[in-house]
Specification:
This protein is an alpha+beta fold and about 140 residues long. About 15% of the residues lie in helices and about 30% in strands. It binds calcium ion (CA).
Length: about 140
């Protein structure tokens, strides 16, 4: 099953939608909780969830309310492996939402420093202090 987050202020939050047989649908918030949101967030490449929202926090979706009574343990790699009903009598006023934790900071790639790089200046200065002839810049993720 494929998921996405819709209508949030950034890619880490939004209304949870699932793709099934070519159609995007929403998730009923009955039984929607952090364990379920954790699975959704990890499916999207985030380390986990910050919050699980009910009552269409990110607005009502369109299409079918695709999943109901989602009962993840929290360790599943896909919401398809969780218990759920593939039908729901919810309306879109009960669409579930999620906010995901930001991806953890990983060792960042070092790029050659140059004066055009927006992140170069600080590092260039620092390297001058250290009397280095070259410096390295760190890209901001
Ligand atoms: Ca649940």
């Amino acid at each position: 099953m494929t998921v996405r987050l819709v209508n949030g202020s950034d890619s880490r939050r939004g209304r949870v939608e699932v793709l099934h047989l070519g159609n995007w649908g929403t998730v009923c918030d009955h039984a929607w909780d952090m364990r379920d949101a954790n699975v959704v967030c990890r499916m999207l490449g985030f380390p986990g969830a910050l919050a699980a929202y009910r009552d269409a926090k990110y607005g009502p979706g369109k299409g079918r309310v695709r999943l109901g009574d989602v009962g993840c343990k929290g360790s599943e790699t896909n919401i398809a492996f969780c218990a759920y009903k593939d039908y729901s009598d919810c309306t879109h006023s009960n669409d579930a939402g999620a906010a995901c934790r930001a991806a953890s900071v990983v060792p960042q790639p070092r790029i050659p420093c140059n004066r055009q790089s927006p992140f170069a200046k600080l590092f260039f200065k620092k390297s001058m202090i250290q009397r280095l002839s070259a410096c390295t810049c760190v890209t901001k993720l």
